[in-house]
Amino acid sequence: MPPLTKKERMQIPRQPMPEQPPLERNKNFLEVNLGLTEELARMEAQRCLQCPKPVCIDGCPVGVQIRDFIQLVSEGDFLGAAAKIKQDNALPAVCGRVCPQEEQCEVKCVVGVKHDPVAIGRLERFVSDYERETIGIRTPAIKPKTGKKVAVIGSGPAGLSCAGDLIQLGHDVTVFEALHEVGGVLIYGIPEFRLPKSIVKAEVDALKSLGVEFQTNAVIGFTDTIDELFASGYNAVFIAVGAGLPYFMNIPGENYNGVYSANEFLTRVNLMKAYKFPEYDTPVFDCKDKNVAVFGGGNTAMDAVRTAKRLGAKNAYIMYRRSEKEMPARLEEVHHAKQEGIEFVFLTNPLEFLGDENGWLRSVKLQKMKLGEPDASGRRRPVPIPNSEYITELDMAVVAIGNGSNPIIQKTTPDLSYNKWGNIIVDEATMKTSKKGVFAGGDIVSGGATVILAMGAGRTAAKAINNYLNNTEAR
Amino acid sequence: MNKIVSAEFLAADIKRFVVEAPKIAAKRKAGQFVIVRIDEKGERIPLTIADSNKDQGTITIIVQGIGKTTKEINSHKTGDYFLDVVGPLGKPSHIENFGTAVSIGGGVGTAIAFPTAVALKEAGNHTIVINGARNKDLVILEEELKNVADELYITTDDGSYGYHGFVTQKLQELIDSGRKIDFVLAIGPIPMMKAVANTTRPYGIKTVVSLNPVMVDGTGMCGGCRATVDNKTVFVCVDGPEFDAHLVDFELLTKRNRTYNQNEKVALESHLCAIDKAFFEAVKTETIHQ
Ligand SMILES: Cc1cc2nc3c(=O)[nH]c(=O)nc-3n(C[C@H](O)[C@H](O)[C@H](O)COP(=O)(O)OP(=O)(O)OC[C@H]3O[C@@H](n4cnc5c(N)ncnc54)[C@H](O)[C@@H]3O)c2cc1C
Ligand SMILES: Cc1cc2nc3c(=O)[nH]c(=O)nc-3n(C[C@H](O)[C@H](O)[C@H](O)COP(=O)(O)OP(=O)(O)OC[C@H]3O[C@@H](n4cnc5c(N)ncnc54)[C@H](O)[C@@H]3O)c2cc1C
Ligand code: SF4
Ligand code: SF4
Ligand code: FES
User: Fold this and answer.
1) Which end of chain B is less congested by CB atoms within 10 angstroms, N or C?
2) Contact map slice: A 342-361 vs B, CB within 8 A
3) What is the pTM of this model?
4) What residues of A are in contact with residue B262 (Cβ under 8 Å)?
5) b/e A30-46 (16+ beta carbons within 10 angstroms → b)
6) Which residue of B1, B39, B70, B217 to mutate against A (max A Cβ within 10 Å)?
7) Which of 2.40.30.10, 2.40.160.10, 3.40.50.970, 3.10.300.10 is the CATH number of B2-89?
8) Nearest one of A310, A321, A261 to B235, comparing CA atoms
9) Which residues touch A241 (CB under 8 Å, ≥6 apart)?
10) Handedness of CA B238, B242, B246, B249 (dihedral sign)
């Protein structure tokens, strides 16, 4: 087949992602997207113009060599493509699924100017799934052992990617995780139907096979402090504890039974497998035939509301105080949620939860909003409309308005510098903190962000930690 | 995996476990707790560290079987394992030499209060312990408490042992006798803690209770353990578990602890069914073998 002309390429439509039918999938926890077939992937890859200046790469926080990997896909060299991506992205099977591509790589793609952009994320997902399912995740060669030891605190994307790079560089790495499972938000937050846990496990197993040690049930600060880690022989520490402190709205009635933080609701369902109750012991509110509302407009809110729907909710609402345009969630998730029968109530803010004498949530008092002037984030600020209050019946509510930083490390490591939100202050180029030998990255530094940014921070830190360890200043 | 070094019943449904957990044993302070998960499908259950032995690398927990998981925990024997034990969690008790300190434990709360009673004594307090139980068979830790307390009062609701009445009646008697009491710690069922708070409030005696909301992670990540103290929301696992008794909203705590009653009934029933079935199977095989 002669190579296609630019024009011909532009005429190929964006290939559809095979998915479970909406009204079937909203009753199960299996993955929504089924993944591209080889044919679809190669066809999609043909849409890439192989730009001399691939601007798409500017949109990717870790600079995946998008053009080159897509070229390999179009040639049918899927394993070559997977290896190409791995040079910059340690968790492509995850990022291909959860990156907000429409704001990152794909928004820059030149094809997107007139047509739909090349489906970079889906191709990334395809090749990494292909590799895992055919030959298994390939592990890189490891440099000779340096005898240096690094403690990584937290096993989310930041911690995992940092551990992966450091072990390759010949250092010994132990990852300490507070929970009983490894993966951070990828395990306890993002649901199975969007990111199967077997994929995270496969990545973790690959790290284990490289020699990374994992200690679960280790809450650093309590089980060991950072100074105790140094005293027990670690030469450097990377803090990647995420942004795990749920914000509440501080409105009356928020402690009624049936009002959850998104973290609790999702942790019960994902980590503790409450969707399999009573086979698994941990219960969650029985959503069956109930009215459920999730407050918020981000990925967490979408995950919570779609989870509630899958648990049988009769009406599952997203209630968001701005309009659809301002919602920070990935486009695909909003689209999927709509298909699954989620009802969106925009420009609406809760004022008060109302309950019964036994302390159970019964309804919520809402207020209508309109959009005013843009605020610091550039999004138009929601302003209450006077006398627009109304009451909606509700059996369960989930508050998904974001996370602050968990205070355990801060309280037990006073000699680190923090900003007023409790985020650790670092030198952006090296992720170095104010404490000798201690680096930090991911959500604990940036505040709630994205998987790819956390992963990128982990890699930046790994480089800096390597320099530090090879330098005489290390203890 | 954490090995159970010893397991013995102290009373019906109340069992004491000594468990291997060297790091926790080395670090834990009075008032802190662990979270235990018995197996892959298990819930995460918060349990106070009743005691520890640094040299042997063990901690002691005392468990009352009240629901599915605690009953399952109590079916574990010496030599068995718990899948996960994480800790020490929560803030240690605030200990100082208050003068005269009264430590009140109700039911399994006696076990939870025990380490703090020891710490109060070690800090130089004249330590009075009131240990309440429904009846004689449910009295636990009497010997251990005798070694700690300057004065020990056992109360039973039915008068089958010790003082006949509630712990608060004994406390009121002590107050009425004109003794100067500087500090009260009360741990037990919510109604008991609330009653103690009401007893000491008029006298302005500093009173601390240990709250027991339903927990998941125990690290401040989920907010499931929230309670209202001084009209503010707290996360008990990281801000507590001990709080000023006069500021706690006990009503709310009681209601929130009922969140999963319906689910837990289902779990317990299916668990008991499984036990019945196992029993039935055992009987059947035995019959066949005869
Ligand atoms: C529900 C949900 C959906 C999301 N969806 C998306 C999405 O679609 N796309 C996207 O890009 N991003 C998404 N995000 C955001 C993304 O998951 C995070 O930005 C990312 O996981 C941050 O990675 P991290 O490594 O910094 O921390 P985390 O993933 O939060 O991991 C931190 C880990 O550290 C552990 N830890 C905390 N304290 C301690 C301690 N003291 N000792 C030991 N361990 C500790 C925690 O238990 C946790 O496992 C979502 C987030 C949530 C909550
Ligand atoms: C910080 C802390 C320390 C604790 N220390 C101990 C201890 O040392 N020994 C001990 O035996 N127990 C202790 N508990 C209580 C123990 O965690 C609960 O009894 C246990 O979680 C119940 O689990 P279950 O599955 O067996 O019962 P479930 O089936 O979950 O519940 C059975 C019944 O108990 C009630 N209940 C549910 N959760 C709790 C709870 N957290 N506390 C009290 N009642 C509850 C329910 O309303 C229900 O009626 C502690 C709790 C906390 C928060
Ligand atoms: S890592 Fe994310 S942003 Fe980068 S190319 Fe892949 S999908 Fe796009
Ligand atoms: S910008 Fe689009 S067309 Fe150009 S190389 Fe990147 S993916 Fe291909
Ligand atoms: S148990 Fe989750 S925040 Fe306390």
Assistant:
1) C
2) 358-359
3) 0.92
4) 286
5) ebbbebbeeebbbbbbb
6) B217
7) 2.40.30.10
8) A261
9) A153, A154, A178, A220, A406, A408, A409, A442, A444
10) positive
For residue B73, give the nearest of B121, B116, B13 by alpha carbon: B13
The secondary structure of A46-63, three-state, reads HCCCCCCCCCHHHHCCCC
Tokens coding B90: 């929560």
Taking CA atoms only, the protein residue closest to ligand 5 atom 2 is: B222
Which residue of chain A is at minimal alpha-carbon distance from B27? A223
CATH fold of B100-257 reads: Rossmann fold (3.40.50)
What does the pLDDT read at residue B284? 40
* For residues A55-61, average pLDDT: 94
A267/B264 Cα distance (integer angstroms):
18
Q: Which of B139, B153, B174, B21 is nearest to B86 (CA)?
A: B21
CA of A444 vs chain B CAs: smallest distance (Å) = 13
**Of B217, B223, B264, Cβ closest to residue A248:** B223
User: Helix or strand or coil: residue A89?
Assistant: coil
Q: Which residues contact A429 (CB under 8 A, 6 or more apart)?
A: A460, A464
Q: Which of A16, A40, A20 is nearest to A30 (CA)?
A: A20
User: Parallel, antiparallel, or unpaired for β A361-374 and A390-393?
Assistant: antiparallel
Closest CA to A46 of A16, A12, A23, A21: A12
ipTM confidence score: 0.90
Judged by its nearest atom, the ligand closest to the C-alpha of residue A109 is 4
- What is d(CA A332, CA A337) in angstroms, rounded to the nearest whole number? 8
The residues that bridge with A439 in the sheet, in sequence order, are A238, A432
% residues pLDDT > 70 (chain A): 99
The pLDDT value given to residue B288: 36
The b-or-e profile of A363-377 (16+ CB within 10 A means b, else e) is: bbbbbbbebeeeeee
Structure tokens at B187: 């741990």
Q: Which atom of ligand 5 is nearest to the CA of B216?
A: 1
Q: Does A119 sit in the ligand 4 pocket, CB within 6 Å?
A: no
Q: Summarize pLDDT for A150-206 with one digit per residue, the tens.
A: 999 999 999 999 999 999 999 999 999 999 999 999 999 999 999 999 999 999 999
- For residue B213 the two structure tokens come to 């909301």
Helices (H), A415-450: 443-446
How far, in Å, is the centroid of ligand 1 from the Cα of A305?
Answer: 19
CB contact, 8 Å: A216 with chain B?
yes
